[in-house]
Specification:
Number of strands: 11
CATH class: Mainly Beta
CATH architecture: Sandwich
CATH superfamily: Jelly Rolls
Helix content: under 10%
Largest sheet: 6 strands, antiparallel
Strand content: over 45%
Number of domains: 1
């Protein structure tokens, strides 16, 4: 049985600049075709605009508020919002609140730096 606690997994920075803690993925469990991680964006911070050629993502906001852009669409997001990001869709997330923005990120196939294409300067 694979059980990972958020407080026991190490943080690392993804190619888009998010600090994530990978809870379950092929690197640390029997999961082979997806990944689950918590991402954190500090107040005033943002991800670098990017897309994933292969992976589809789901973001689920657990703490804070932000502004999400997917393609040409822009929307305010907050706790309880689930966001669908299809493969190939340009996207960027800003933290618009005063606290750290925290979200769960589900990727299928699982997250890989090699499947992240940056479209703006970091």
């Amino acid at each position: 049985m694979d059980v990972q606690n958020l407080n026991s997994v190490p943080a690392f920075t993804t190619k888009d600049g998010s600090e994530i803690r990978e809870l379950l993925a092929h690197r640390n469990s029997a999961i082979a075709n997806q990944s689950l991680a918590e991402a954190r964006i500090p107040a005033g911070g943002a991800t670098t605009e990017h897309y994933h050629p292969a992976a589809e993502e789901i973001y689920y906001i657990t703490h804070g508020t932000g502004r999400m852009r997917i393609g040409d669409e822009l929307r305010e997001v907050g706790v309880g919002d689930a966001i669908a990001i299809p493969p190939g869709a340009l996207h960027k997330l800003w933290n618009t609140g005063v606290d750290t923005l925290r979200l769960l990120c589900c990727c299928s196939p699982g997250y890989e730096h090699e499947d992240t294409v940056l479209t703006e300067d970091e």
